[in-house]
């Protein structure tokens, strides 16, 4: 059931219980209903707080095969499990619970693709585990072809795909070296045939030194050694936005952009100055705001999305993820490095998928 509809029903039921005559007998709309109405449209599912819910997590991660060693925190010895037991509660409405069987039936025969860096990998693995929980192992087929890894839920013909791309725009090998082409997006040819696209890019835009996967940036005719990275991000994202405007057929394809996924290396952001990683964090931040506000990149994302004339849904997970300093692997992963950037699976990315599902079912109803 859609968020808006669920909320409308809960209000109607609420009014009915308190004073049933309002809903019976005549067509007068009470002033109470009128006053409530504007709230319906206003409910922003991305504003809220984390609440304890003993029915969580939504699946048992040890039953989900092939979780990457980077994300399988329980398997690699994370001793606490409180972090698995939080549900996102929007301020003004309820999110529908993730219904894996409904998801598979609703999107029968469709392809859904996550496109981006390792945060997309994180997001994709969570969706596979959520769906895996309701079908037999034997009905899931996985294969990799170049940059694309596909898990097919064969009984439903649903393909959940991952397209690895650090910047969305192109990197090409040329005589001078590797060139990041911030105004070229050739893979769009592949993406535009997919039914549901979920984009993400951010992590790599500030990489420097040996981890930087390019030697030069090309912007139009200019070849540059480097440029302001936030400007580069804005330009690259604009190339993507122009591609959406020119190449996406909104009758076929629904487009999402995932907001900036935050990391937690600076304890002063949650009032523990001196702390330099997330290793001691076992609980979310209470309330609905984070001390630093949104990172600058999140504003760049919002500004660029405004230039898109087609419907693109911002999966605005930044603030709700900022509150989850407890949800990173820290050292409970298969390589033992300290990781306060990615997220445990099961864990926070399940909520990203719950929000994706809520947005999709709201759209499906409107469009059909
Ligand atoms: C999760 O699954 C594993 C193996 O399938 C099982 O041993 C464990 O008890 C399960 N955990 C919960 C909380 O159900
Ligand atoms: C999308 O559908 C509408 C209404 O059916 C139609 O007018 C429009 O041409 C279609 N657009 C594309 C790009 O196919
Ligand atoms: C993580 O932080 C703890 C305490 O804040 C510190 O003792 C430890 O050395 C840090 N570990 C890494 C790998 O940074």
UniProtKB/TrEMBL annotation:
- Please state where this protein is localized: Membrane
Q: Does the keyword Transmembrane helix apply?
A: yes
Where it mainly occurs, coarsely classed, is membrane
* Keywords in alphabetical order: Membrane, Signal-anchor, Transmembrane, Transmembrane helix
Going by the entry's taxonomy, the superkingdom of the source organism is recorded as: Eukaryota
Q: How does it sit in the membrane?
A: Single-pass membrane protein
GO terms of molecular function: O-acetyltransferase activity
Looking at the record, the residues that make up the Trichome birefringence-like C-terminal domain are 95-358
Q: Does the keyword Transmembrane helix apply?
A: yes
The record ties this protein, via InterPro entries, to:
TBL (IPR029962), TBL_C (IPR026057), TBL_N (IPR025846)
Q: Give GO cellular component annotations, separated by semicolons.
A: Golgi apparatus; membrane
Protein family: Belongs to the PC-esterase family. TBL subfamily.
Q: What is this protein called?
A: Trichome birefringence-like family
Q: Which organism is it from?
A: Quillaja saponaria (Soap bark tree)
Q: What is the lineage of its organism?
A: Eukaryota, Viridiplantae, Streptophyta, Embryophyta, Tracheophyta
């Amino acid at each position: 059931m859609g968020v808006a509809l669920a909320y409308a029903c809960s209000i109607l039921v609420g009014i009915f219980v308190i004073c049933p005559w309002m809903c019976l007998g005549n067509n007068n709309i009470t002033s109470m209903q009128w006053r409530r109405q504007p709230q319906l449209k206003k409910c922003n599912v991305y504003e809220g707080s984390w609440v304890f819910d003993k029915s969580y997590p939504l699946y048992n991660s040890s039953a989900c095969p092939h979780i990457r060693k980077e994300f399988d925190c329980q398997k690699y010895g994370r001793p606490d499990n409180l972090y698995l037991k939080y549900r996102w509660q929007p301020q003004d409405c309820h999110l529908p619970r993730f219904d894996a069987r409904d998801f598979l039936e609703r999107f029968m025969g469709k392809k859904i693709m996550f496109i981006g860096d390792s945060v997309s990998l994180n997001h994709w693995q969570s969706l596979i585990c959520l769906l895996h929980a309701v079908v037999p192992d034997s009905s899931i087929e996985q294969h990799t072809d170049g940059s694309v890894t596909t898990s097919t839920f064969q009984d439903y013909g649903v393909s959940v795909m991952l397209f690895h791309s650090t910047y969305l725009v192109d990197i090409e090998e040329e005589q001078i070296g590797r060139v990041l082409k911030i105004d070229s997006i050739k893979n769009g040819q592949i993406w535009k045939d997919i039914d549901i696209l979920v984009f993400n890019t951010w992590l790599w835009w500030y990489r420097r030194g040996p981890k930087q996967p390019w030697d030069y940036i090309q912007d139009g005719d200019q070849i540059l050694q480097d440029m302001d990275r936030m400007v580069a991000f804005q330009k690259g994202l604009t190339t993507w936005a122009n591609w959406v405007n020119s190449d996406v057929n909104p009758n076929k394809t629904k487009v999402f952009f995932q907001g900036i996924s935050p990391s937690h290396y600076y304890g002063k952001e949650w009032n523990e100055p001196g702390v330099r990683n997330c290793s001691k964090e076992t609980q979310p931040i209470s309330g609905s705001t984070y001390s630093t506000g949104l990172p600058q990149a999140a504003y760049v994302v919002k500004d660029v999305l405004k230039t898109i004339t087609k419907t693109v849904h911002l999966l605005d997970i930044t603030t709700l993820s900022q509150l989850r300093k407890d949800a990173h692997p820290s050292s409970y992963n298969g390589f033992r490095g300290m990781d306060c950037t990615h997220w445990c699976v099961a864990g926070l990315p399940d909520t990203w998928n719950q929000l994706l599902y809520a947005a999709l079912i709201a759209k499906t109803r409107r469009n059909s």
